[in-house]
Amino acid sequence: MNKEVNKEPHQGAKACSPGYHRSQAAKGVIRLRESNLWKPTNYGHSRILDVIRKLSGNKRPNLLNNPTDYLVVREDWDDNSVINKHETSVYTDASVTKTGTGIGIYSEALNIQKSYRLKNGCRAIQAEICAIGEAVRLIRASGKPLGNVIIYSDSQAALKSIASKSVRSKVVMSCQEALSWIRGDGVGLRWVPGHRNVVGNTGADGLAKLGARESGAEVIDSPLPPISSLKDAIEKITLEKQKEIWQNRNDCGIARNLWPKIDNSRTGQLLKHKKNLVRIAAGVITGNCAVGVNLQKWKITNDNYCRECNEEEETIEHLLCRCPAIVNRRFQIMGQEFLDGLEDAAEMEINKIMNFARNWKCFRSEVVKKG
User: Fold this and answer.
1) Over the stretch 16-67, which tens digit does the pLDDT of each residue have?
2) From its phi and psi, is residue 46 left (phi > 0), alpha (psi between -120 and 50) or beta?
C-alpha cells in the first residue's frame, strides 16, 4: 500500500478506493492464467475472475521456435521498381476507429474486394495481421493458379511479427498457419508505404474503413482481445461496481450530492492543491467540519445558528447555497447569488468551492465558543 500511495497524489487516492486491490489482483490472475500458472477453483479468492469469465486472452506460453519463411522485404518505392508486372498483387489494410475495427483485402488480378468488421476489440497490429491471414484464405478460395503472389501490407510491425521465430500471439500463429498452407506456391509478403497513392493500398484502405464504420459488413470473430483489453475490462467493471455502490448508499448525503459520481479528473484537480485547501474541500464535501450543527452535536457550543448571518442553522447547504451574509462573495466566486441546492454545486469547479469556503468562520483556525 505504501508503495502505491507514494507515487502520485491521485494514484494514492485511487489505491485507497474500494475495489482497487480487487482490480489489481484480477490483473495478476490474468497474467498467471495466460502463463498456465493459475489453478482455478470455485471457492474463495480463486473466483476473482468470475466477473470476466467469458473474456479470453490472446497469449499462449509455448513458443513457436520453428523458423519462418515469411521475411519482410523493404524496397525502394521511389523508382517504381518494387512491383513486378508478372506478379499477382494482393493488398491488405486495417482501420481502428471509435465505431469499430475493420480490415480490407484488395486485388485487381484476383478480383478480390472484401471488407470485414472485427467482432472483438483489438489493437491495430492485430487487425493488420488478421487482414493478412484473411487474404491468404481468399487467395486459396479464388481457385486460380498460384504463381508469384505477393501480399502487401503497410504495417511493418505486423510483417515483423509474422516473420518472427519466437511467437506467443495466437493471432500471429493463426496467420503463420494460413501462410503455411501456400508456402510452396510462391507466395510472399512485402511492405508497402501507406498514404503514397499506391492504387492497391488505397483500395484496401478504403475497404478497411468501410468495415470499421458499416454495421452491415461481414463480421469475423478473430482476433481475440489482447491481455491489455482484458485489463481495461477489469478497470471498467470495477469502476461500474464502485459507481453502483456509491449511488445506492443511504448515508453520506452531502458527499453524494456534491460528488455524485466517481470522477478521476475532478479528484486529480483537487489533489493538486495544498493540504490546507484540500482539507477545506474535504470538509465541505463530507460535511465533517466545524459547522454549527456539528459543534452543537459535539457539545462545543450551545446553539447551532449561523455565525455569518445568525438567521438559520449553520449547515454546509446553508453556507454554500443561501446564507445572505455572504451573498456578494458567492456571486463573485461562483457566479450566482443563491443556489437552489447542493446539486447546483456538483458540476462546479472544485476551485470555486474551495475559494468560496476558505473564509467561512467554520474553517478559521480558532473556534469561538458560544455562550
Assistant:
1) 565 667 777 777 776 676 666 666 666 666 666 665 554 444 444 333 333 3
2) alpha
In a domain, 66, yes or no: no
Would you say the pTM of this structure is higher than 0.90?
no
Q: What is the CATH number of the domain that holds 129?
A: 3.30.420.10
Residue 41 lies inside a defined structural domain of this protein: yes
Structural domain harbouring 123: 88-217
- Dihedral sign (CA 240, 267, 306, 303): positive
Task: Tell which residue, 238, 239, 236, 229, has the closest CA to residue 119.
Answer: 229
End-to-end CA distance of the chain: 46
Q: Could you tell me how far CA 212 lies from the centroid of its own chain?
A: 19
Same-domain status, 243 and 262: no
Q: For helices 264-271 and 350-357, give the axis angle rounded to 10 degrees.
A: 40
- Dist. CA 242–CA 196, nearest whole Å: 48
Distance (Å, whole) CA 226 – CA 170 = 10
Helix (H) or strand (E) segment spanning residue 269: helix 264-271
Alpha carbon 240 to its chain's center: 13
Q: Tell me, yes or no, whether 9 lies in a domain.
A: no
pLDDT digits (tens, 9 = 90+) for 132-184: 999 999 988 887 777 788 899 999 889 888 888 777 788 888 888 888 877 66
Number of domains in the chain: 3
User: By C-alpha distance, which of 169, 139, 181, 132 is closest to 153?
Assistant: 132
Q: Cα separation of 302 and 31, whole Å? A: 60
Q: Are residues 136 and 198 in the same domain?
A: yes
Tell me, yes or no, whether 213 and 93 share the same domain: yes
Measured distance CA(305)–CA(357) in Å, rounded: 17
